[in-house]
Design the sequence.
């Protein structure tokens, strides 16, 4: 079945909506160069659901996507003020980005590695210092998939930036982002307002 992506949707959310695994949805869409980057209006294929394509492991609730050690880590979304940042042209100069992944990326066992997995570069190839933060999974387990990023200083108005996420970003279960991106970094390009 064909499906037209709506604003704010990710492959993970679409998989939940249609009762298929994220892996099955990605496999049904080989035309997607980067499954973490889909856009409103894009047409994708939805595989037929069935017992073997349940999006959650047996006994798990919908708040627990993935099965530890059984599938790679995926980048789900990046938002600022609730809006998708990918390709946006009106990002504030003092943004606070919320990045979502499909596994626990904030546990203390992986945080030292993950905090170093982000770079922001301007169109003039200038590195932008970042504050990378989290809510510890021992404080609020429901936020274990979220990383927050803020530039240390305001960004330059009317400038294009590229945020890169290292393929070495790791989940608590030991999977790396590179396992779902063929070893490539995830890059998000946006432009500041002004």
Sequence:
């Amino acid at each position: 079945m064909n499906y037209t992506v709506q604003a704010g949707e990710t492959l993970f959310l679409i998989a939940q909506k249609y009762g298929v695994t994220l892996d099955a949805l990605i496999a049904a869409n080989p035309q997607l160069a980067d499954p973490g980057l889909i856009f409103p209006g894009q047409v994708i294929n939805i595989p037929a659901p069935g017992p073997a394509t349940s999006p959650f492991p047996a006994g798990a609730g919908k708040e627990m996507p993935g099965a530890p050690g059984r599938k790679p880590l995926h980048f789900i979304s990046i938002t600022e003020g609730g809006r998708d940042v990918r390709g946006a042209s009106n990002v504030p100069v003092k943004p606070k980005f919320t990045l979502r992944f499909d596994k626990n990326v904030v546990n203390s066992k992986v945080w030292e590695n993950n905090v170093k997995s982000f770079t922001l570069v301007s169109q003039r190839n200038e590195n932008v210092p970042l504050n990378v933060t989290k809510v510890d999974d021992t404080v609020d387990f429901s936020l274990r998939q979220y990383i927050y990023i803020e530039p240390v200083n305001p960004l330059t108005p009317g400038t294009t930036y590229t945020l890169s996420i290292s393929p070495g970003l790791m989940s608590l279960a030991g999977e790396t982002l590179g396992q779902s991106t063929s070893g490539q970094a995830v890059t998000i390009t946006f432009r500041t307002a002004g």
Remarks:
- Confidence is low (pLDDT under 50) at residues 51-68.
- The radius of gyration is 17 Å.
- The helical segments are 11-18, 22-27, 108-114.
- The first strand starts at residue 2 and ends at 4.
